[in-house]
Amino acid sequence: MENGNLKLAIQKKGRLSEKSIELLRLCGLDLDFYSERLIVSARNFKLDLLFLRDDDIPEYVQDGVADIGIVGEDVVYEKQANINVCEKLGFGRCRLMIAAPANCLPQKIEDINGKTIATSYPNILKTYLQANKLQAKIIQISGSVEIAPSLGVADLICDIVSTGTTLMMNKLSKSFNVFDSEAILIANNDLNLNTEKYNILLDLIGRIRSVMSAKKSKYLMMNIPKDSLEKVTKVIPSLKSPTVLHLADENSLAVHAVIPADKVWSIMNDLKAFGASGILLLPIENMII
Ligand code: PRP
Ligand code: ZN
Description:
D-Maltodextrin-Binding Protein, domain 2; Alpha-Beta Plaits; six-stranded mixed β-sheet; five-stranded mixed β-sheet; globular
């Protein structure tokens, strides 16, 4: 379907699917979903969404079947595809780890020597073993790696750990960390040759950046006694000078400020001590800096 739309591949089903769609919605894209559709077009943006297995995304982007993709760094490094990394997306954080049943968990790294390891990430694992001068047998499995030890296929596994639920359900424990990953936006190397599509990508990246910086901030609103203004402004870690508004009550002021989300709770006690009341903290959807 060549309609001039930018084609974005995302994971059809898995850890990154929902978060990828949430990000696109926060970017203002109006998307309709029909459960078994492979392609969905945004109603208000020149973009088509392709739902694919995450393992296939780097290659599809490399070959130009999709122009861009949202996928884990783990998969991109494993597939060694020739693509451009545009942006880290700050979600889908996970670790590729060695794991094993508790009774044969490697205590020190040399314990991996001579073991059989099942994984869907043979390239990353091979690099890790070489870097640590270890000798182990790699068994490549495309899915459900976590059941390999109980089937007697392997001693250890090397797989993605996010919440840890999969390991727990399969009575496996974490051991060494092989690779840290998060979701990234990737693009076909020749996309810049297509000016129209490249401009759509730049528009999308601008929106993604504004969503990401908005997530890191909160909008703080409160009323304070007029004579606390100096003390209050001193503790507010505002990006810019806070907005101060007069109220009908002449002894009070309203103060509004955009503050870093991680600083919110550390200033709350001070604000209350300075007499702040009606404190409201609002999420910010987009922030255009
Ligand atoms: C990975 C991995 C586990 C799961 C671990 O799958 O293979 O199944 O995530 O997550 P947890 O620690 O939260 O339980 P992924 O989403 O990458 O899908 P895929 O294996 O089908 O590619
Ligand atoms: Zn996968």
